[in-house]
Write a structure and sequence with these properties.
Distance between the termini: 96 Å
Strand order of the largest sheet: 2-1-3-5
Largest sheet: 4 strands, antiparallel
Order of helices and strands: EEEEEEEEEEEEEE
Helix content: under 10%
Shape: elongated
């Protein structure tokens, strides 16, 4: 009676993947008849496929999975951009939670992939820069975009010294 996550339901054109509770939705199907088949590594399904006609909106009866090994849990991604105060992308910034790491491309874009559902605290780092916000805590249960940071070059300090020019 438990839902099975990460099962692909497809007719070869339209595809959905089950969530952690085994639920899925196929949206925006044109009117017609469809036969959908579930697939997941290590699983067989009863029935092997189901047919549905739309319109109207339809609810297919459940598939029953028999799995020798459960499908792997779904994974997600977090993406964003690191820019300077003028909106220019900043390259070579490392975004990490200590386990998952990505580095910004020449336009400042990054993507952290293969993240299981959960909460993550990501910190941007690059020598010579400070960041706003300094960390970002993100709850991940779907792909998350727009997790941006602003990079500010660290101030350079020093002391000017007058050296007289002696010409001989």
């Amino acid at each position: 009676g438990n839902g099975v996550a990460n099962v692909t339901i497809s007719d070869g054109t339209y595809t959905a993947t089950t969530d952690p509770n085994g639920n899925y939705t196929l949206s925006n199907l044109p009117a017609g008849s469809y036969t959908f088949t579930p697939t997941a590594a290590g699983c067989t399904f009863s029935p092997a496929s189901r047919s549905v006609t739309v319109p109207p909106n339809a609810t297919m009866p459940n598939f029953t999975a028999s799995c020798t090994t459960p499908p792997p849990p779904p994974t997600y991604s977090v993406s964003g951009q690191v820019t300077d105060n003028d909106g220019n992308g900043v390259a070579n910034v490392t975004i990490s939670d200590g386990t998952h790491t990505a580095t910004t491309d020449p336009n400042g874009n990054y993507t952290l992939s293969n993240l299981p559902a959960g909460s993550y605290t990501f910190t941007p780092t690059r020598s010579g820069y400070s960041f706003n916000p300094p960390v970002r805590t993100i709850s991940v249960n779907a792909n998350v975009t727009g997790q941006d940071f602003t990079a500010t070059p660290d101030a350079v300090s020093g002391r000017a010294v007058y050296l007289p020019l002696i010409v001989r």
